[in-house]
Design a protein that fits this description.
about 20% strand; 11 helices; four-stranded parallel β-sheet; alpha/beta; binds 6-O-phosphono-beta-D-fructofuranose; seven-stranded mixed β-sheet
């Protein structure tokens, strides 16, 4: 067993539903194994400023169902500097923290990898992001909850789209990835999804309009990923184009924004976060370091953080065919 007496746990980057369930699982599994837990507030910024709270099992009581993160979170620009990371390391050592569990998305795990390499610290990453864009894991913590939130909203927008015979362009988050747009389109019975993973050679709007001509539908829902390609994209861009190029259609835009990140985690995310948090401590006890916990075919896997953040996670092309066929 690796010599780890105290771990620090932090959440970083955009919050995601299920982060609290992950913090709870990390804390309880560590305490079960007699490892001390320090909660680091506000992500890497709290590490730099020494904002530490001693965590016991009861610190995480009544949190599994709560959205957001009890540890708070931040996007720390200071941690991107050598000086910031040096301060973070000194504080960590002073507090007796031997290893870190970092719960966050791509940017947060990229920071973790750099920090681990520079200061030789064991770090375990948990994929906490609604974007589902980390390589090596089928799902990230928060993705399923965000998907459900989006679908609930789209169902409501559908009522007004039908009543007015309008095309709605609904913009969803996902940063550079189209998982939320593609799968919420399938789940809500939308007519199309415009995602960054599709080839730049394809004009996804023209394709959608052409497809629509073969159908007898008067209203439509198009899920648009927030990602821009070569400076263009987003729901307003497509709605403006419809106004100019296809004036026979009445187009509207809804940007779902940050409501997608809030709310109670789904049962799936709570279970995923619990399994991953448990696995993070098991990994540390086994002497593993600098890996991200993932899930593949419902089995927990360990992925080198470097691969998780560097490699692009592809969208299964079958999902694109499913939407195209079922939206007929
Ligand atoms: O990475 C999570 C995410 O919600 C992205 O989908 C989105 O692009 C970004 O964070 C928004 O960040 P912020 O909350 O800092 O505006």
């Amino acid at each position: 067993m690796a010599d780890i007496n105290t771990i620090g746990v932090l959440t970083s980057g955009g919050d995601s539903p299920g982060m609290n369930a992950a913090i709870r699982a990390v804390t309880r599994t560590a305490r079960f194994n007699n490892i001390n837990v320090i909660g680091v507030m506000r992500g890497y910024q709290g590490l730099i400023e020494g904002e530490f709270v001693k965590f016991t099992s009861s610190s995480v009581s009544n949190t599994i169902q709560r959205g957001g993160t009890i540890l708070k979170t931040a996007r720390s620009s200071e941690f991107m500097t050598d000086e910031g990371r040096r301060k973070a390391y000194e504080n960590m050592k002073q507090a007796g923290i031997d290893a870190l569990v970092v719960i966050g998305g791509n940017g947060s795990l990229t920071g973790a990898q750099l920090f681990a390499r520079e200061y030789d610290i064991p770090i375990i990453g948990l994929p906490g992001t609604i974007d589902n864009d980390l390589y090596g894991t089928d799902y990230t913590i928060g993705y399923d909850s965000a998907l459900n939130t989006i679908v609930e909203c789209v169902d409501k927008i559908r009522d007004t789209a039908n009543s007015h015979d309008r095309i709605f362009f609904i913009e969803v988050m996902g940063r550079d990835a189209g998982f939320l747009a593609q799968n919420s389109a399938i789940a809500s019975g939308a007519e199309a999804a415009i995602i960054p993973e599709s080839s730049t050679a394809v004009d996804q709007l023209a394709e959608f309009i052409e497809r629509g001509k073969r159908k007898s539908k008067n209203s439509a829902i198009v899920l648009v990923s927030e990602a821009q390609k070569n400076g263009v994209g987003g729901a307003f861009y497509y709605a403006d184009r419809v106004k100019k190029e296809y004036p026979q259609f009445d187009a509207r835009v809804t940007i779902l924004g940050h409501l997608q990140r809030g709310g109670m985690p789904s049962a799936y995310d709570r279970i995923l976060a619990s399994r991953m948090g448990y696995a993070a401590i098991e990994a540390l006890l086994e002497g593993q370091r600098n890996i991200m916990v993932g899930i593949k075919n419902d089995e927990i896997v360990y992925v080198p953080i470097q691969r998780a953040v560097k490699l692009d996670k592809p969208i299964n092309p079958e999902l694109i065919s499913v939407l195209n066929v079922l939206s007929m």
